[in-house]
Specification:
Length: 318
C-alpha cells in the first residue's frame, strides 16, 4: 500500500514538474544570450505573468460579484481593470517577441506615472506613494541598471520636493481627507501587504539568478583549475621526456666522438701491418725465400688481431 501511494505521488510530482517546465519554456524562458540580459528578461517575464494573473483574477472576481449580487458591486471597475490587463499583455508580447528592454522601460513608466499622480493629488507623505516609490527604485535597479535607477530616483526626489513646496504654499491644492480617518482601512493593509510581497518576490528572483550565475562561475573556475593542474602535470612529463631524449642524444654524440677517436688509432695500427704486408707481397714476387714467408705470416697475424679488435669495438658501439 505504501509503495502504491509512493508511486502515485512520484507520478503526480513528475507531471507537475513537467507542466511547470512546459509553462516556463513557453511563457517565461528568456531568449537573450548574455547572462545579465537573460536574468533581467526572466525577472521581467515573471513579473508580467504574475501581473496578468492577478488582473485576470480581479476581473473575473468583479464579474462574479456583479452577477451574483445583481450588479450591486461597482460594475465600472471592469472598465478600469480590463484596459490595464490589455496594457500589461501588450508589454508581455513586446518582451517575448521584440525587445525585453523596451518592455522594461514601459513597465517602469507605467509604475512611475501613478506614483507622481498620487503625489500630486494626496501629497508625498502618503504611505502608498512611499511604498510604491521604493518598489519602483528596486525594479529599476534589477530590470534596467543601477545608474538608471539613480537617475530616476533623482527625478522622483526633485518631483517630491517641487510638489511639496507648491502644496505647502497653497499653489497646488492637495487632498488631505485621507489623514482625517482615525483608522486604517483593511483595503489599505492589503495594498501594503501586496507591495511587500512584490518587493520580496523581486528581490528573491534577482538573488536567485545571481546565485545561479555565481554557481556557474565557481563551477567554471574549478574546472579551469583542474585543467590548469592537468596541464602543469603534462608540461612536467613532457619536460622530463625532452630531457631524457636530450640526454640520449648527448650520449649518442659522445659515443660517436669516442668511436671516431678510437677508430683513428685503430686504423693507424691497422695501416702499419697492412703496409708491411703489401711490401712483403712485393718481395714474394721477387723471391721465394722462407725467411720472407715467415715475416709475411707474422704481419698477417698482426693484421688479423687488429681487425678482430676493431670488429669487437664496433659491436660494443652498436
Amino acid at each position: 500500500m505504501n509503495t502504491f501511494i509512493k508511486n502515485m505521488f512520484n507520478k503526480i510530482k513528475l507531471k507537475i514538474n513537467g507542466g511547470v517546465y512546459f509553462f516556463y519554456k513557453k511563457f517565461i524562458k528568456p531568449k537573450s544570450v548574455d547572462e545579465d540580459h537573460k536574468r533581467r528578461e526572466f525577472i521581467l517575464n515573471t513579473l508580467l505573468m504574475c501581473t496578468l494573473f492577478l488582473y485576470s483574477l480581479s476581473f473575473l472576481t468583479t464579474i462574479y460579484c456583479d452577477i451574483k449580487a445583481n450588479n450591486t458591486c461597482n460594475g465600472q471597475e471592469n472598465f478600469t481593470i480590463f484596459p490595464v490587463f490589455i496594457l500589461f499583455l501588450i508589454l508581455y508580447l513586446i518582451s517575448r517577441f521584440k525587445s525585453y528592454r523596451l518592455s522594461a522601460y514601459l513597465f517602469i513608466i507605467i509604475f512611475l506615472i501613478p506614483v507622481l499622480y498620487a503625489t500630486y493629488i494626496w501629497g508625498a507623505d502618503l504611505s502608498a506613494v512611499l511604498l510604491f516609490s521604493v518598489l519602483l527604485i528596486i525594479m529599476l535597479s534589477i530590470l534596467i541598471s543601477t545608474y538608471f535607477s539613480f537617475f530616476v530616483t533623482s527625478i522622483i526626489s526633485i518631483a517630491f520636493i517641487v510638489l511639496t513646496i507648491l502644496q505647502t504654499n497653497n499653489i497646488i491644492a492637495v487632498d488631505r481627507t485621507w489623514k482625517n480617518g482615525k483608522e486604517i482601512g483593511l483595503e489599505n493593509i492589503f495594498i501594503y501587504i501586496l507591495t511587500f510581497l512584490i518587493i520580496v518576490t523581486i528581490s528573491w528572483l534577482s538573488n536567485r539568478e545571481i546565485e545561479k550565475s555565481l554557481k556557474r562561475a565557481r563551477k567554471s573556475e574549478s574546472k579551469l583549475k583542474e585543467e590548469r593542474d592537468l596541464l602543469e602535470i603534462k608540461v612536467k612529463e613532457r619536460t622530463k621526456d625532452l630531457e631524457r631524449v636530450q640526454m640520449e642524444k648527448m650520449k649518442e654524440v659522445s659515443r660517436l666522438a669516442e668511436f671516431g677517436r678510437l677508430s683513428s688509432g685503430l686504423f693507424h695500427d691497422l695501416i702499419n701491418p697492412l703496409t708491411a704486408l703489401s711490401f712483403n707481397v712485393e718481395k714474394i714476387k721477387k723471391s721465394q725465400n722462407d725467411c720472407h714467408l715467415r715475416e709475411i705470416e707474422k704481419d698477417l697475424d698482426e693484421a688479423f688481431i687488429v681487425t678482430k679488435k676493431m670488429r669487437q669495438f664496433i659491436k660494443s658501439i652498436h
